[in-house]
Every structure is written in structure tokens, then in C-alpha cells.
From TrEMBL:
GO terms for biological process: biotin biosynthetic process. It comes from the Bacteria. Substrate binds at residues 60, 153, 283, 316, 400. It comes from Shewanella piezotolerans (strain WP3 / JCM 13877). This is Adenosylmethionine-8-amino-7-oxononanoate aminotransferase. The keyword Transferase applies. Pyridoxal 5'-phosphate binds at residues 120-121, 254, 317-318. Its EC number is 2.6.1.62. Pathway: Cofactor biosynthesis; biotin biosynthesis; 7,8-diaminononanoate from 8-amino-7-oxononanoate (SAM route): step 1/1. It is found in: Cytoplasm. Transmembrane segments: none annotated. The record marks 25 as: Participates in the substrate recognition with KAPA and in a stacking interaction with the adenine ring of SAM. Signal peptide: none annotated.
Amino acid sequence: MNTTNQVNNQFIDLDFDAKHLWHPYTSMNNALPTYGVVSAEGVELTLNNGTKLIDGTSSWWACVHGYSHPKIVAAMQHQTAQLSHVMFGGITHRPAVELARMLVDMTSERLTKVFLADSGSIAVEVAMKMALQYWQGRNNPNKQKILTVKSGYHGDTFAAMSVCDPEGGMHTMFGELVTEQLFAPEPKARFTECFDAEELQSISNMLEDNHQQIAAVLIEPIMQGAGGMRFYHAEYLSALRKLCDKYDVLLILDEIATGFGRTGKLFAYEHANVEADILCLGKALTGGYISLAATMCSDEVAQGVSDSPAGVFMHGPTFMGNPLACTAAIASLELINEQHWQTQVSSIESQMKTELAEAVDYTNVVDVRVLGAVGVLEMKSTLNTAALQQQFVDLGVWIRPFSNLIYIMPPYTISSCQLTQLTSAMKAVAKQISLPSNDTNFISHG
């Protein structure tokens, strides 16, 4: 790729980037190739050499309305000229108030309090701190552990790392610096299969034996995202809510990846008809236009936190309640509330089920699964991300595999033709991997 090409007079020095800029989950000794993007519109990214790619990732699952949406752009431009940032300590503003009102109205009745932070990982940190302070306010300071399930992912900051998969996850190298939490086996029954209540026995036993030390159970509802793109049965979540009530433990639901329609419901917990005590939101909250997250809780949790020895909730990010981000979120949620997402996601799901079905017969494909606007091909072996990334770029799409998964989470605004280009690329690459002569090219060997 020519590192000096430019489009619209936007030069990107990819050589300087490779030498000095650290990208997510990459080595500075042997960095993965990067592709310069100069603009984006609708569901297409334009590279610095003029190539256009259909984005199959929604920029890490966030850009649900596509790029350069006029409603969100206009709202942000107006807010930037008026009030782009102001400290939230002792000050409030209309965007924060209106966003909180929208979130309270659209989530479950129990969730009445809103803490606005600046990233998904921090939303999880805030939720965990809320749970610990709640029990201090209820004169039960021994409740300091979080129970979660394996194959989960909740972020890269230290508290969030402690509740990610401790064996197969991304954070095993930090050892004793990461707080030791409690892990039950991951849910087994698939979303579309029959549910066997016996699989709850392990987590039920852990709650019975350790509830006096457990502050909360934390879980991604219905879909485990970066831990493996696994869709589990709604009955598991429903039963887990009952177990939390039985053993007097809070339930924290991490909807950062699943919230705002991604799984076919506005929030994934609706599949199980349950309510959280604490709810984490992010990613699609602003439509992917600027970083913002929210942690919501019940009146009961807020009261317990406020009754703790500190008397206040001990967290306050500099960019908490940022007016520019809140404005983007309001515009995004107004688009969500127009209800077009339901038709869009349903159509995406139906088309992906039809078009990806044949891949189950490919030699190296273990499983094909689709839920809402999420489509996954699970391969037998860990993939060579760099090699496959180039393959997808050559096919005119942006699909970024990880581990042994080729997956897409496209913007809801994608056309049927564009979606077919994504699914066709997925099948073409998966089929090529399945040829014995290509194993060494596309399979990672450590």
C-alpha cells in the first residue's frame, strides 16, 4: 500500500504511525498493518488511497446509524459553538438533564439514577464501586467480591480486567495486581436451544457458599461479546435474577455491546424480561460519534451508596457529563426512538441467517450463529489477523477477525446489497481458509 497517497488533500504518514503510534492490542516490535481512513459516510470508509470499504464492525459495534448522519452532526456542531465542555461538579446543563430523562424513560422502571462517564470500561468500574459502597451503606462491608462467568469481557481498566475471563481472556499476564474475583462456568445452552436448569447448579452453589462475601453478580446479558461472541439462553439470565434475589446479591448487567437494539431487543435483558440493579451502557449510546458511557442504578442502590461512610459516591471523571457527548447521545437516541431500528435489525438478522448458512459445511468452520445484527463464523483455529485483514480489504470490506472468529456487527442503516458484500466476503475468506494449502497463510501459529 502506498503510504504517501492522499485523498481530499488529507495526507496520512503511515510510516510515522508505525514507528510512534500504539494501536489497540498491538506490538511496537511487530505491529499489525494499519489502513489510513480520511472520511466516512453512510456505511463506507474511504482510505487514503481512495479505496472505499463497507464497514462490517460499526467501528467496534458503536456506529449504529452509520457515519456523517446529518442529525447527529448538526446537533454536535451547534453544541460545540455553544458549550463543548464544562465541569460537572456543582454545574449542570440541558444536554445532561435531557439525556438522563431519555435513559430513565427507555430503560426498565427500576433504573432511576444516571452516572455519566466517558468510556465503557469506566462504566463497569463505576458499577462495581457502586455495589461495594452500597453494601457499606447497608452495614455489610464484608461483601467485597464480584461473581461473574467465564468467557466474559468487561473492559481493560484494572477493576474491569478482574471480571474478564481469568484463563482465556486478554489480561492473564497481570497476575496478583488484578483483584481476584469469583468465576462460574459460562452459560452453555445456546439462545435457540432447549434450556437445562442443571447448568445453573454451579453458580447457584457458589452463591449459596459465598453470598456473604458477594456484592454483585456481573454479566453480559444474552451475548458474551469480546469473550467469544456467544449467544446464551434467556432462561439462564431469568434464573440468575431469581438467584440474586434469593441470596441478597445485586445484579449488574453490562449492556455496553448489546444495548440499543443490537440483539433484536432495545436492551438484551428484555429477552429474559428481567431488571438490573445496576446497568452499564456505552458504545452505541452516542451512535459511535464520541465517547460516552452511563451507569444506571435503582433508588435502593443509590440510597445505600449515599448511606455509606463516605456519604457520597466516590467517583468523578473530568469529562463526566460532557455536554458535547450528551448532545450526540440525545440525537442518537432520538433516532433510536423513531423505531426504524427494529425493522432494520430484523432484516439484517434474516438476511445473515440465509446468506451465512452454507458456511457451516466449510471444513474449518465450527459454527455459524446469528442474533439480531450480529453474524459470526467460528473457525477451528486462531486466525492470522493481519493476513485476513488484507484479504477483506482486497474484497472491499472492513471486517476485523479476532481469535478464531470472523464476525460482523454492521450499522443498522446498511443496505441489503452492502450486507451481501459483507457476508460474501466472510464466506469467501472462510472457504479459502478451509483449503489445506492455505492453513499456513491464514491460521496463527502463536
